């Protein structure tokens, strides 16, 4: 079931805790770890799941990343249909989150950041996105693919606006 909840002011702290637990194991591999997705936008309603992306110089580092994350309970899931972005399972007992790894020059990651940063600086657009998410979560209650597809036009429009304006 898709469940959208009001913004939780604890989300940045949960992200920081997750990030801090990954910095040491990924030292020398990941240049930084970004908080992405709706939980990264202050005030935005979201699924109660933190999305974070570890950024590496190239995917040549992926085998080493997989090796360092395994002892922490993360298992590599592949790209899950998103070329250049690799997903990992959430370790048992950890806060709900999605960990991804991608190269710094991944064009899809640039779009993710553009969308996040635009919503952070345009609260009216963020409110419109929240309203859309609530509506679609109700409409596509048990259809994650339908929910995601229904958001795509809105997201694409905002990404294009953000990248054209240089707001990313």
UniProtKB/TrEMBL annotation:
SUPFAM superfamilies membership: Nucleotidyltransferase
Q: What's the protein called, per UniProt?
A: GrpB family protein
